[in-house]
Amino acid sequence: MRRAFAKAVQHSRSPFRPGPIPSGNSCVLSRQHQHCPAISPYFAVRSVGSNSAQERGQPVFSDAQRSTIYALSTPPGKAGVAVIRVSGQNAFGVWSRLVKSCERVPEPWKMERCRIIHPKTGGVLDDGLAVFFKGPKSFTTEDVLELHIHSGRAIISSVLEALSQLPFCRPAEPGEFTRRAFEGGRLDLTQVEGLKDLIDAETEGQRRLALKAVGGATRDLFERLRTEIIGCLAKLEALIDFGEGEDIEEGVYEEARDRAIELRRTIQSYLQDSRRGEIMRTGLRLTIFGPPNAGKSSLLNFLAQREAAIVTPVPGTTRDILELSLDLGGIPVIVSDTAGLRMTTDPVERIGVERARNAIQAADLALCVVSCEDLDDLEFPSSVKPLITDETFVLFNKSDLIRDSDTVSRLKGTDRWTTSLKSGEGTTEFLAGFAAALKRKYELNDDGEANRTPVITHARHRVHLESAARFIDAFLATSAEEIVLGAEELRYAAKAVGKVSGIIDVEDVLDALFRDFCIGK
Q1: Which parts of the sequence are annotated with region: Disordered (predicted)?
Q2: Residues 33 and 121 in one domain
């Protein structure tokens, strides 16, 4: 009877299922070195030391066979320490050729004081440290060697050149270490994305969000969701295979539909998140707009705390869009300064005005800056009034030009502030209020962390969840007589959710399903 559950998931296997990395070296040397899965240190010495591989009867390695990779893992330039990472089945061969220490065989996971030498000349390249990670207990799940050397351009170049002399080594491709970690099952796709986001994080909120993804929180959530869909699918497959001729519990089909309805609600709650996770990861796009000479560029300079934009009393100074990345209350914000909105005959300025209008439409949020002297009985200028909505933030600048304090008070309100960027009056209140408004809108606490951890942090997560929701809707639209079609829709939904983490195989779910669902009594 296990057939029914196996059939429910047999099409959920992914063509991207992680598998072992091909070992090119063992293909060439399998007859000579069947006792060892990697190239022996002795062979490495002979192949490197020979003037011609063909003259010594040695095979010439192709790029595919040079499966041991190396790269500089720290930023280039002068610093205290640089780390060069080596990964592959011949990492021990690299140790035996380049590392000279009191230990002939490295003790895994222990830092060794050593000298780094050239494999051909034997000359000392640097005095540093080395650590050997025995697979699969390493980042890539392969044998890994890390060389901790002094970070100088000449030292780094000489060690990398020495590694290039080893015939079984080649430089790593971009992201290849992390790719091997994924292929070895160390990371899933959400953890890979989280690792990159963690490296790129510029704010505290981004760091926290990425760290949760690296820790597997996102993977666990999507795996639970996929398991629930597979549970519904297994019930339908049992009905298809055994039908009324077997002792199947009453109400199995109705139970599967009820669970699918709950899953649909859960997915919808994830999708209706105002893109909080994506915004926290990539940055909130904020466009500053308003009439000429309202103080838009002055506001940009104030936020950036430097002269990022040219400020003059001449209208139309800003012609193109100027962008800056800022940290406002722990929230990453990409601020765009735009050309002043007005009717103009200048062809260059007209292009800038059109670009400003497009930027407002494409932004996540818009901040309108209006000079208090341009207000007519507290009415916005006609050039910006059509662009102001209930979601628009408003900053009334040049409040020092208004002598009536009652008028200044009337201008203030929810998501509206008055300032004088020239004198600094009201700027502290504006910054605090604006940051609080952003946190309120995107459900963040005072530390810039989401009150509810966003599930979707990448656009592809949203695409796959939307697909899963459509397939579940298609299942719910079928009747009991169309159970075969309904089961196929659930199978597609499970695949769509599985694509988020990249682990589509569901063999690990079968045991849990057998415990929860009894097919006969």
Answers
A1: 1-20
A2: yes
pLDDT of residue 68: 94
Distances from the Cα of 478 to the Cαs of 359, 488, 489, 490, 517, in angstroms?
A: 44, 11, 10, 11, 23
Q: What's the rounded Cα separation, in Å, for the pair 406 and 403?
A: 9
Write the DSSP string, 226-265. Answer: HHHHHHHHHHHHHHHHHGGGS---TTHHHHHHHHHHHHHH
Domain that holds residue 176: 24-183
- At which residue do the structure tokens 């997560």 appear? 461
- Number of structural domains, the chain? 3
3-class DSSP state of 371: strand
Are both 58 and 116 inside the same structural domain? yes
The HSE-up count of residue 374 (CA atoms within 13 Å, CB side) is 20
For residue 497, tell me if it sits in a domain: yes
Q: CB count, 10 Å around CB of 136?
A: 12
List, in order, residues 6 or more apart from 306 with CB less than 8 Å away: none
DSSP 419-445: -BTTTTBTHHHHHHHHHHHHHHHTTB-
Please identify, among 398, 417, 441, the residue that sits at the C-terminal boundary of a domain: 441
Please, which residues bridge with residue 286 across strands?
A: 335, 365
pLDDT score, position 294:
86
Final residue in a domain of this structure, among 155, 183, 211: 183
338 vs 289: CA distance, rounded Å:
6
Looking at the fold, whether 221 and 334 belong to one and the same domain comes out as: no
Kindly report the CATH number assigned to the domain that includes residue 358.
Answer: 3.40.50.300
pLDDT digits (tens, 9 = 90+) for 114-152: 999 999 999 999 999 999 999 999 999 999 999 999 999
- Omega before 136 within 30 of 0, i.e. cis: yes
Separation between Cα atoms, residue 434 and residue 367, nearest integer Å: 10
At residue 488, the pLDDT reads 92
Quote the CA–CA distance of 155 and 296 in Å, as a whole number: 49
In a domain, 461, yes or no: yes
Clarify whether residues 338 and 408 are in a common domain: yes
Phi first, then psi: what are they for 369, rounded to 5°? Answer: -110, 120
* Contact assessment for residue 196 and residue 213, using Cβ atoms and an 8 Å cutoff: no
In a 3-state reduction of DSSP, which class is residue 93? helix
Kindly state whether residue 354 falls inside one of the protein's structural domains.
yes
Nearest to 27 by CA among 79, 67, 83, 55: 67
**pLDDT at residue number 23:** 37
243 located within any domain: yes
Within 10 angstroms of residue 379's Cβ, the number of other Cβ atoms is: 9
CB atoms within 10 A of CB 51: 6
Q: What is the pTM for the complete model shown?
A: 0.70
Residue 302's nearest CA partner among 326, 267, 331, 333 is 326
pLDDT at residue 77, as a whole number: 84
Q: Looking at residue 467, which CATH number applies to its domain? A: 1.20.120.430
Same domain, 47 and 154: yes
Question: Could you say which residues of the chain have pLDDT below 50?
Answer: 1-56, 506-521
- Residues 179, 193, single domain; the answer is no
